[in-house]
Design a protein that fits this description.
The complex is a heterotrimer of chains A (512), B (332) and C (295). Helices cover 33% and strands 27% of the residues of chain A. Chain A is an alpha/beta fold and 512 residues long. Chain A has a 6-stranded mixed β-sheet with strand order 6-9-10-3-11-12, sandwiched between helices. In chain A, strands 18-21-22-15-23-24 form a 6-stranded mixed β-sheet, with helices on both faces. Chain A has a 4-stranded antiparallel β-sheet with strand order 2-1-4-5, with helices on one face. With 332 residues, chain B is mainly alpha-helical. Chain B has one domain: ABC transporter involved in vitamin B12 uptake, BtuC (Orthogonal Bundle). In chain B, 74% of the residues lie in helices and 0% in strands. Chain C has one domain: ABC transporter involved in vitamin B12 uptake, BtuC. In chain C, the strands form 2 sheets. Chain C has a two-stranded antiparallel ribbon with strand order 1-4. In chain C, helix 8 crosses helix 10. The N and C termini of chain C lie far apart (46 Å). Classes of the chains: A alpha/beta (512), B mainly alpha (332), C mainly alpha (295). Chains B and C meet through helix 5, helix 6, helix 11 and helix 13 of B and helix 4, helix 11 and helix 14 of C.
Chain lengths: 512, 332, 295
């Protein structure tokens, strides 16, 4: 009998009417590493959130060791030994690692928290499991790999037997990934069961024993990993023989479109971007690689005008835009596809039409003498909706669109403004493979039309697909400017991403 | 709906506090329509609420929450009344000047809060309120001191010229042509919201400030302008009341106009046109209470309890509205 | 003389401090309760009324707490269960309290103005023997009624609760990282509701301390103290000691206003604006300094 069974699970999200799961199934054997695989939007995270009590299912049954269990909240889940390490971490940033490990179940002496005991407990766990982490430091100072370990330790503290890891490698460097896999093997030896959510098939093949594939909310394939192949899994993930065929064209690059000179940006009291310089030419895609949190966001915001730079200059088509407002930069020819699609890139409570005209409502033909021309706006939106293949109507609220369609609305607006340079951040995060390919084609199209693209991404495959040159940022400084000529490997880029290697001597000496 | 529930609540209160509830209820619910005096007065008292309702709707739609309406109204009206008193009457432009002065004064006060919010992220809710409390005291000082009418029995300004007053529409009630002005303003605001580029900026800023900045909208300017317009509208509410009914500024004449305006705006869901029926509903309650107090033994405060409970229930109704909106979207 | 002034400062601080401590709990939970003013006002009324009806000050205090907590509970309920806008619900509390107190005052007591109650013993002042005799400070340190002493004790208790107990840890997590709290099994909703109820208790005390000692109720008695308390919460930055300092500043401003009214011929109306200006200036200065650190 299977240790854990989730049968016929249905779930609809109330906030935007999205059907996340329709009859999904998962069966896991004790003491195995089980991979849960599927495209973005297939329902993997939702299924696991139901398992660990963060979401409620509309219909379905969960069995542990043959007994039906009801998991209504994380407390229930903990009681059954189930815990999840989230993709974006659930840690209290200001508390120490030790405090985070016991969070929710602190040892106490009378009404007061027993601080000494916390450290003792944490140390015991750490020795027992082999997961090394500095315990006394506020968690916000830890590296991403260390934060992940804290989360795992927390589950172990609560007596977790089933550990769910949600896309654990998406934010790790190659080195950290290797360490994570070692830790997983150790946990497995101790009899723990591990469910591993991912869409990276290499990892599935290398670390897991069994695999389940979800597609559009249903379970379409289950097998032992040794009995299947990457191709078979990919086929089930997408539902047809979809080969991701993307060929980057090598174009002759033209004149400089975007130039950043010695840019430094502060955030609160520290420098997040230190003396950064680079150029983007016509017909070129320049990529920026780096572990999240090394200054990318601040750099991008300074370039597009949403944040003030402390020093340095930005030039667009030869014009100094350093002190211009976002509106003025747009008018000069700068486009921006932000990382935060929902909070910055769109207004969820506005219609598609309202979203599309935000950068052009004040010019003719969309308005005259201050009066909006509704008809013109709506027909323009309709035209863009069909050109960019957005599944939605002119008057629908953006809130009800899928992630991929929201991204298309943003692309429709930015690209139809005919910018000279587009700054693009994490464009395919959370998108399914078809939408991702569409996005890649749009970017390639920009290149062909002699525009410049500055692509910021934490997805190295994406950068290797699209970028002609790849810059690497570490602690606010550029550590490498690599040509993507076919021989560039992920491991090589990672060396710069972790700060192990740096091509610019002056930079290294500046680093504190 | 919440309006029905709160009316039932009022009925309950009347039953409990009156010795002849049936008579009291009749007076309360129907009394306002029994003759032109009561009816006209009811309409007249809706006028300032329409304007303060618009004031709240404008500010709330932009997500710059102006809670200082009372003080802005009071201060703007003081300035307007003073100018009216000093200028006397010299032609049809005088009234424009007076209203304009009130509007600008009230608006500037509110704009200060808007500026503080834009520049230093000072919570405008609290800053506008603190300024408002202070202004009420300051204006009262003037009404009892430098700008007082020594012959009046209460703290009030001197009368302004008869010729500046709005013409009466339904004697013997106090209904005046200011009502038409209020309705016109409401329509103008509605058109601005839906058709003007500034209205678009306001709405987008209110819904998602970061998206607005990203798109190129000057969010800071939008907030300040929204607050300015909001304070100005509130001041108009007070000024029109003075020029329509009182003829002078009496201490405390507008107490509650600001807060009720907020309630009016919330029931109207910040829609400028719906502010009119919403304000009428409020003044209907107020009027019913006055008539009830006159013709039976209930106290006028009954209206307050109902108004407040409407407010409470409206918040829960917000949920129902949201659910309805979602159901409609599901079928779309 | 100085001792007397300090005494006034402390007395003026206490209602603000109590309301602010209550507000602090809601601030820590992530959702500030803006209905403090209304809750305080309701408590002012109901505590004297109940004390008068039963002849017992204790019943008065408890009634004040009860009504204030009821309002807080309704606000939280509307916000959590019915997913209404808690900010609007807080506003509703203010409006409801204003209307209800005037309504009940005129209906039950026949007056819309100042009402004096006589059927119970006023809240006595405790003179602490040794401290009382100290030359300058004696008047400053002793002679307060029990609620005022309680207020300061509560500051210390609140400090311990927030920083040294599991509840405090959980509350802080709920406010700063609600997702994290939820994933470790801490109920965000329960903590918000509980913090609102606590704010009700504290505002109940605040209202009682305003009306019971003088055995008087005036319409609008809270006169903006609830709003000033909110500013004290913001300035306190999640720390009861910070809230205490801010409340003292505002209490001092009120005391100054009182002093000037008694001692000079300046208009009472103008002097009454002092606390508001001080509060406003503090808010702006605080915001400006916060901004400087960000840029």
């Amino acid at each position: 009998m299977e240790y854990l069974q989730m049968l016929d699970i249905h779930k609809v999200y109330e906030s935007n009417n999205v059907v996340a799961l329709k009859g999904a199934k998962l069966e896991v054997k004790r003491g195995t590493v089980h991979a849960l695989v599927g495209e973005n939007g297939a329902g993997k995270s939702t299924l696991m959130k139901i398992l660990c009590g963060l979401e409620a299912m509309n219909k379905g049954k969960i069995f542990i060791n043959g007994h039906v269990v009801r998991i209504r909240n994380p407390q229930d889940a903990f009681r059954f030994g189930i815990g999840m390490v989230h993709q974006h971490f659930s840690l209290a940033e200001d508390f120490t690692a030790a405090q985070n490990i016991v969070l929710g179940n602190e040892p106490h002496k009378g009404p007061f928290v027993f601080k000494k005991r916390i450290l003792e407990i944490a140390e015991n766990l750490y020795l027992d499991s082999g997961l090394r982490v500095p315990l006394d430091v506020p968690v916000k100072a830890l590296s991403i790999g260390e934060k992940q370990k804290v989360e795992i330790l927390r589950i172990l503290y609560r007596g977790g037997d089933i550990l769910i890891l949600d896309e654990p490698t998406s934010v790790l460097t190659e080195q950290e990934i290797a360490e994570l896999f070692e830790n997983i093997r150790t946990l497995k030896k101790k009899g723990k069961t591990i469910i591993f959510i991912t869409h990276k098939l290499n990892e599935v093949m290398s670390i897991s024993d069994e695999v389940t594939v979800l597609r559009q909310g249903e379970t379409v394939f289950e097998n032992k990993v040794q009995n299947t192949t990457k191709e078979e899994l990919a086929y089930h993930m997408v539902g047809e023989r979809f080969s991701f065929h993307f060929q980057r064209k090598k174009l002759q690059r033209g004149k400089i479109l975007l130039e950043v000179q010695n840019l430094s940006v502060m955030d609160t009291t520290i420098y997040k971007v230190k003396d950064v310089s680079f150029q983007v030419h016509e017909g070129e895609v320049v990529g920026l690689a780096g572990v999240a949190g090394n200054g990318q966001l601040q750099l991008v915001e300074a370039v597009v005008g949403l944040r003030k730079a402390s020093s340095g200059k930005v030039f667009l088509c030869g014009k100094d835009i350093t002190t211009l407002t976002p509106k003025q930069r747009r008018e000069t020819g700068l486009g921006y596809i932000p990382e935060d699609r929902l909070g910055v890139g769109s207004s969820l409570d506005s219609t598609i039409a309202e979203n599309i005209v935000v950068d052009r409502y004040h010019v003719s033909p969309f308005s005259k003498w201050g009066l909006l021309s509704k008809r013109t706006i709506e027909s323009h939106a309709a035209e863009l909706i069909s050109r960019f293949n957005v599944k939605g109507k002119v008057r629908s609220l953006v809130r009800f669109l899928s992630g991929g369609n929201i991204q298309k609305v943003i692309l429709a607006r930015e690209l139809s403004a005919d910018p000279s340079v587009v700054v693009v951040c994490e464009p395919t995060w959370g998108l399914d493979i078809r939408s991702s390919l569409a996005v890649y084609n749009f970017i390639e199209d920009l290149k062909e039309r002699k525009k410049g693209v500055f692509l910021v991404s934490s997805n190295l495959d994406e950068l290797l697909h699209l970028a002609d040159r790849i810059l690497v940022i570490f602690r606010g400084s550029i550590y490498a400017n690599l040509s993507n000529d076919g021989s560039l490997t992920k491991a090589h880029i990672c060396e710069y991403m972790t700060g192990t290697r740096c091509d610019f001597r002056e930079v290294k000496s500046n680093v504190v | 709906m919440s309006l029905v529930i709160s009316l039932l609540l009022g009925l309950l209160v009347i039953t409990l506090t009156s010795s002849s509830p049936l008579e009291a209820a009749k007076a309360f619910f129907l009394g306002s329509f029994s003759n032109s005096y009561f009816f006209g007065n009811m309409l007249a008292s809706a006028v300032p609420l329409i304007l303060t309702g618009l004031a709240a709707a404008v500010s709330f739609s932009s997500s710059a929450f102006n809670l200082g309406l009372e003080g802005q109204l009071y201060f703007g009206t003081l300035i307007g009344t003073y100018i009216a008193y000093k200028l006397g009457n010299f032609g049809s432009w005088t009234i424009v000047v007076i209203l304009g002065a009130a509007f600008i004064s009230g608006g500037s006060v509110a704009a200060v809060s808007g500026y503080l919010k834009s520049k230093w992220n000072v919570n405008e809710l609290i800053s506008s309120l603190l300024i408002s409390y202070s202004l009420v005291y300051i204006v009262n000082f003037f009404l009892a001191g430098p700008f007082t009418d020594p012959l009046a029995g209460l703290a009030a300004s001197p009368y302004v010229s008869e010729k500046l007053m709005f013409s009466k529409l339904m004697l013997p009630s106090s209904l005046h042509s200011g009502l038409l002005l209020a309705i016109a303003v409401s329509v103008v605001i509605y058109l601005i919201f839906s058709r003007h580029t500034w209205g678009y900026e306001l709405r987008i800023t209110g819904r998602s400030q970061f998206f607005a900045s990203y798109g190129g909208i000057d969010v800071r300017k939008t907030w300040i302008t929204a607050m300015f317009l909001s304070g100005g509208l509130a001041a108009l509410g007070g000024m029109i009341d003075v020029l329509g009914i009182h003829g002078r500024m009496i201490k405390g004449f507008s107490y509650g106009y600001g807060w009720n305006g907020i309630a009016v705006a919330l029931i109207a869901r910040n829609n400028p046109l719906l502010v009119i029926p919403s304000a009428l509903f409020f003044s209907y309650l107020e009027s019913g209470a006055q008539v009830g107090a006159l013709m039976s033994d209930i106290t006028p405060e009954v209206a307050r309890v109902i108004q407040a409970s409407v407010f409470y229930l409206v918040t829960a109704e917000g949920l129902a509205f949201f659910l309805k909106k979602r159901r409609r979207a599901k079928t779309a | 003389m100085i001792g007397e002034f300090i005494h006034t400062v402390v007395s003026m601080t206490v209602p603000i401090l109590l309301a602010a401590l209550g507000g602090l709990f809601t601030d820590l939970s992530g959702i500030l309760n803006i209905g403090l003013e209304g809750m305080m006002l309701s408590s002012c009324f109901f505590s004297v009324l109940a004390a008068d009806m039963t002849g017992s000050v204790v019943v008065g205090v408890l009634s004040g707490i009860a009504i204030s907590t009821a309002f807080a509970g309704i606000t939280a309920f509307l916000g959590i269960k019915l997913r209404a806008n808690i900010f609007v619900a807080g506003l509703a509390t203010n409006l409801m309290s204003a209307g209800l107190t005037v309504f009940l005052s005129s209906t039950l007591l026949g007056s819309k103005g100042t009402v004096t109650f006589t059927s119970f013993e006023p809240l006595g002042r405790l003179q602490i023997p040794l401290l009382n005799d100290l030359p300058l400070l004696g008047r400053a340190l002793s002679g307060y009624n029990i609620l005022e002493y309680l207020a300061f004790a509560l500051v210390i208790i609140t400090y311990f609760v927030v920083f040294k107990t599991p509840y405090g840890y959980h509350l802080q997590t709920v406010g700063k990282n609600p997702e994290t709290a939820r994933s470790v099994g801490i109920s965000v909703e329960k903590h918000i509701v509980l913090s609102f109820l606590l704010s009700g208790v504290f505002c109940g005390l605040a209202g009682a301390v305003l009306s019971l000692p003088m055995r008087v109720f005036v319409g609008g008695m809270s006169s903006g103290r609830g709003w000033i308390a909110l500013v004290a919460v913001v300035l306190g930055r999640g720390n009861p000691l910070g809230v205490l300092v801010a409340s003292l500043i505002f209490g001092a401003a009120s005391a100054l206003s009182n002093l000037l009214q008694a001692v000079t011929n300046l208009s009472a109306d103008l002097l009454l604006t002092i606390p508001f200006f001080v509060t406003l200036t503090s808010m702006v200065v605080y915001a400006m300094r916060k901004q400087v650190r960000h840029d």
